[in-house]
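Re-run with default settings, no changes from the original entry. Doing this only to confirm the output is reproducible before filing.
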Amino acid sequence: MLQEPWFWMILGALLVLSEFFATGIVAVFFGVGAILVGIATALGLVSAPAEQIVLFAVLSVAALLLAREKIKVWFRGKVSERWDGDQDPLSARGARVTVTETFDRGAGKVRLNGVEWKAESEADEFEVGDAAWVIGHRGITLLVTAEKQVRQ
C-alpha cells in the first residue's frame, strides 16, 4: 500500500484539507511532503517503503522549517498599534479630560480615554496638564470648560 503513489496523494490531500479545521499552519507542510513523495513514487524515483517514509519526513520537516514563518504572515491580520477608543463625542458630555496642548485663541488638544481630541473653549484658557470637562462637541471637536458640569 505504501508503494502506491495514490496512497501518498490521498494522504497529502487529506493533510492539506485538515488545515482548514485545525489552522496551526503545520499539517499543510506534511501534506505537501506526502504529495511530493507520491509524485516521486509515480516517477519511479523512490520505491521502497522505507525510502518513501524517510523522504516524506525530510521533505515535510524541511518545508515546515523553511517556509512556515513566510507563509504564516498570509494568514495573520494586520494589527494597528493605534487605539481609536470606543467613546464618541456625544457620550463624552460631563467627562473629565486632560489638556495635552496649550489652548491658543480658544483651541487646543485634550486626552479622553487615552485618545487625543481637538478641543475648543469659549471663555477658558488651559495649559498642558490642566483638567477640563466636556460640555459638548462641534463635529469631532470637543467643547470644554474649566468648571465641572453636571450630566443631564
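The chain has a mean pLDDT of 82. Residues 49-75 form the longest helix (27 residues).
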